[in-house]
Amino acid sequence: MNTNDVYITKSSKIGNLWLIPAILLSMLLGWLIANKGLTVGVLLLLIPFIIGFLIAVFLQPRIGILMFIVYCFIMPTLGKHIEGPQFGLGQDATLLLTWLGILFHRSNRYRFRHIDNDLVWVAVAWLIVTILQLANIEEPSFMGWVFEMRSATLYWVLSIPLAMLLLNKKSDIDLFLNIIITLSFVGALYGIKQLYFGPDDAENRWLEAGAKKTHILFGKLRIFSYYAEAAQFGASQAQLAIMCVILAIGPYSTKKKIWYGVASMFIFYGMLISGTRGAMAALVGGGFTFLVLSKQVRILILGGIIGLSFLGILKFTSIGSSNAQIVRMRTSLDPNDPSFQVRLINQKILKDILADKPFGTGVGTIGMWGTKYNEDKFIAQIPPDSLYVKIWAMYGIVGFIGWFGIMLYITGKSAGIVWKTRDPVLKNQLLALCGGATGILLCSYGNEVLNTMQLPAKEQCPIFRKPGKPPQ
Question: How far apart are CA 226 and CA 229, in angstroms?
């Protein structure tokens, strides 16, 4: 008998032994998918990519902060299409992983002296204030505090120093702007698809779960694209629209100007179809900031006339009344609007509750996490509607003054930097960033957009929302 035959037979038997664990593993995976749904299968498919991402971040931590920016855009739609996983925790994981990548990087290329600046220290100060809120005499839920503080301060404290360390070159501003403009442009296109072809099955399930109360008004769908919901979509689109307009008139090549101009038109249309009235503040605030900081009197006067004319058309004429989006925008200038009146009633009730609570009722006692973890407290039943109101309710008038002071300081310091910048390209980019940030801060008065990306599906729309009842 040929010895080769014996060798081949034995090696085949040895190789076939691996079929046993492979079959058992396949059976296990089949059972998990059958009982837990396709979510498990999708997550298993993602494991190789996750491992690759982990390796990449430790080799080049810069990848982590860039992935964080992209993930913040796509996270809400992942939550709508794949049920089960808490995709919001992916933000925390990405930031923490990037920090680990920096701390354990094999080189000493990162200079931590770069994070010794005002912006980082005011973020740390606000984190300390938030931690002190654990001792609030109203005894709010600890879990409510944990989930609320993530968006209220944790992401701020973790992301700002990372940006200082990893995105500190002039070319990084170009990269950052290109990423957010591209994602916003794609978001506008996806929103247009929703408008003309309708939401997909997963998005329809999300609407039926309760979101249709806020997103289908008078028979018209408020477009939300792949964002958390329509208010977030509209505010973000307004912010990026005014930024693109500012960039389009900057000292760039014709090709770049065309790109910024086209992007601004599509993104502005995305804002309109969102039906988000508060987005107007982002346009007005961002535009006014640009006009003032541009140091050109003619542009300031011309821009002021155009802006006032636009608001005047909305306020005093009926032009565009056949368009549902324009009609909804027009209601943002109506002081007798039912939604606005409900907000005023709720703010009156909050004023009575907070009259003897200068430090508020605690972090996580109002809004999404308030209804989930502090349902025994009356204040949790009152919708804040506004980030300003939410900060006031959680931190009290003392905390709100501190928070608003920080926001004004950041805005003023940014404006001062722009004012002194001589490089025309850099100045234009900083103008766009400063105008966009100012606009979104003003926009947060009408909606809670500055510190959140994902809202509960069952949040009620102010139009259908009843004002809270005063405590007995």
Answer: 8
CA distance 119 to 332: 33
Instruction: Retrieve residue 274's tokens.
Output: 């969102």
- Phi, then psi, of 35 in degrees rounded to 5: -95, -30
For the full predicted model, state whether its pTM sits above 0.85: no
Per the structure block, which two tokens stand in for 293? 């900081």
Q: Quick one: tokens of 53?
A: 């991402």
State both tokens at 4.
């080769």
Taken as a whole, the chain contains a residue count of: 472
Compute φ and ψ for 110, nearest 5 degrees: -90, 125
**pLDDT for position 324:** 66
Nearest one of 141, 447, 401 to 274, comparing CA atoms: 447
Cα dist. 304→60, 250, 312, 367 in Å? 46, 19, 12, 37
**CA–CA separation, 114 and 105 (whole Å):** 17
Q: What is the DSSP string of 317-355?
A: --TTTTSHHHHHHHGGG-TT-HHHHHHHHHHHHHHHHTT
Least confident window among 87-96, 126-135, 256-265, 320-329: 320-329
**Quick check: 277 and 326 in contact, CB under 8 A?**
no
- Dihedral pair phi/psi, residue 117, rounded to 5°: -145, 170
User: Residue 460 pLDDT more than 70?
Assistant: no
* CA separation for the pair 86, 203 (Å, rounded): 17
Structure tokens at 464: 């259908």
Integer Cα distance of 344 and 453 in angstroms: 25
Query: Residue 13 class from Cβ within 10 Å (0-12 exposed, 13-18 middle, 19+ buried)?
Result: exposed
Token digits of residue 136: 């609030």
pLDDT band (50, 70, 90) for residue 6: very low
Percent of residues in the chain assigned helix, strand, coil, to nearest 5: 75, 0, 25
Query: Is the Cβ–Cβ distance between 364 and 374 less than 8 Å?
Result: yes
CA-CA-CA-CA torsion sign (370, 375, 379, 380): positive
The answer to whether the beta carbons of residues 370 and 456 sit under 8 Å apart is no
CA separation for the pair 194, 223 (Å, rounded): 7
Residue 266: partners with Cβ closer than 8 Å, 6 or more residues away: 185, 188, 189, 192
Q: Are 353 and 379 in contact (CB under 8 A)?
A: yes
Phi and psi dihedrals of 221, rounded to 5?
-80, 125
- CB-CB contact of 134 with 142 (8 Å): yes
Cα(55)–Cα(100) distance, integer angstroms: 12
Asked whether the beta carbons of 357 and 381 are under 8 A apart, the reply is no
Higher pLDDT, 220 or 85: 220
Q: Using the structure block, give the residue that is written with the tokens 């958390």.
A: 228
